[in-house]
Amino acid sequence: MRESPGHVDHGLVIREARRRRRRRWLAIAVVIVVAACSAAAIVDLTGGPSTSRRPSARPARTHKVTPVVPTSSGVVPRRPGSLAVGPNGNLYIADDLRNQVLERLPDGTFVPVAGNGTVGFSGDGGPATSAQLNYPAGITFGPDGTLYIADDLNGRIRAVSSAGIITTIAGNGGQGDWVADGTPALEASLRPTAMAFGPDALMYVADDNEVLKLEANGTFTRVLGENTNEYAGLYGVGGPARSASADGANGVAVDSSGNIYVAGFNTKAILMVDPQGIVHLLGSVYPRGPSGLVTAPDGSVVAMDELGVVELSPQGITTLMRFPTTDKVSYLGITGFSPNGIAIAPGDTTYLDTFYGNGYTDKSALVVIPPHGAGSPSLLWEDRSP
Fold it and tell me: Is the pLDDT of residue 147 over 50?
């Protein structure tokens, strides 16, 4: 049970914190504008202040303006993160250092499908490859084949049609505030990190300290998270999900029975909201990046752990595979392999990625793991460059 806050006016504290954040961002914006005008240089913002709606254990992120670097075979990933398998069977990679989403073609080359490689927000209504993104996080495909991108630091969810046209379908550019039931999607202040579709064909969004459902009428309904929560920890387990903590949600997936699974970043908890709206604690898992939970083609839910892959179900957490845990043992030639993104293709082929400098791994790489008994894991791509 959550402790009583006593006589402290937490609402006043939160409002004052938000005012301080706005003043800090205004000061940062002025510095950036002055620097750009005087030096005409590319700006590298490293470790800036958090834009979380309240104190959170989520780490500061590094955001760089990264030009597209052509190669003889197109482009190469820089920091591969979230993964998805498209309707065409190709692998798609959200690269937050390139500020692009890449597609891996059957010949092993990579091409951009969204983002022009510079940080910003632009391009709605035009070709997705000419648009600007700002820290693309989770990616997923909708039932109709549309690619959806959690454009995290733009505070928006972007959609790329089969014709390659990009639009914003949710978010007003804010950096996260509580979203009231019935809020039109384009008016919501979001900090989206991941999306998933349920058997109802509706989108579920992990948005820091709440999980939202995008209704068929284009408005949001909260399914997890309490809008008076000023605490970073867990509470409310076993009760109504709308009166419980979402634990800094940064991953979401839905199984074929309608159970909603949530990765809580703050305490590394895996939560499950059942179809009756009750929240359960399944255990502790640490997906290293957004979209660390995915719905497999068979309707089950699979998640990354820090050094492995697990399956989630109402019965709990089952380990599917583990990776070496020391800096002297390699997996497919990668020392300290730790996955950052996961995708499951039809037939249970598993794709994982990792990137150099994530705390364990000495290379950036894409790995394919065939279904059990169908072959051995292999590298699709690797690079030691930081």
Answer: yes
Distance of CA 73 to the CA centre of its chain: 28
DSSP three-state, residue 242: helix
User: CA 371, 377, 380: angle at the middle one, nearest 5?
Assistant: 115
Count of residues in the chain: 386
- What 8-state DSSP symbol labels residue 75? B
Amino acid at the residue 226? E
* pLDDT tens readout for residues 188-197: 999 999 999 9
Number of helices (H), then strands (E), belonging to the chain: the values are 1, 28
Mean pLDDT, the chain, rounded, equals 82
- Distances in Å between the Cα of 41 and the Cα atoms of 34, 98, 154 are 11, 18, 22
60 token code pair = 């500061």
Q: Which residues pair with 243 in a beta bridge?
A: none
DSSP string, 171-234: --S----PPPTT-BGGG------EEEE-TTS-EEEE-BS-EEEE-TTSBEEEEE--TT---SS-
Nearest to 287 by CA among 182, 138, 141: 138
> Quick one: three-class SS letters along 154-165?
HCEEEEECCCCE
Largest alpha-carbon pair distance within the chain?
A: 65
Beta carbons of 98 and 75 less than 8 angstroms apart:
yes
State pLDDT tens for residues 336-350: 888 899 999 999 999
Confidence tier at 74 by pLDDT (50, 70, 90): low
Joined tokens for residue 345: 């293709």
